[in-house]
Amino acid sequence: MRGPLAPSHVPIAKSRGERFDDLVIEAVDRLKPRWGAQLASVEFAVEEVPPPSELVDGPSRLSSDPIPFGRAEPASGGHAAVVVYRRPLEARARDRDTLGTLVFDVVVEQVANLLGLTPETIDPGYDDRH
User: Which residues form the signal peptide (predicted)?
Assistant: First the structure.
């Protein structure tokens, strides 16, 4: 009898994108005990890559303005948003643990940017990782 190798609720059955989404959710959940009130109206999203408008073309690409890992959008008529870019982070990470740390740091950096604070204020352990 043939069937799936693993039930759909088992993590092995998740796509790479779904596993990445889980990392972003875990990062936000880690911040909620301390910053829950400030994050209540913030939407978190994942996009594959940064839009072309965020990329610099030409020789300056090699010397400055690295490819962004995320962005923070202040509320303007709606909810504020933090967007994390999946592909650049996956390309940078050596393994899943490194990817989880990178995702958490990007979420911390973008939340800090959104709230006008330093990453060290958002997560006191940020400095230890950098």
Answer: none
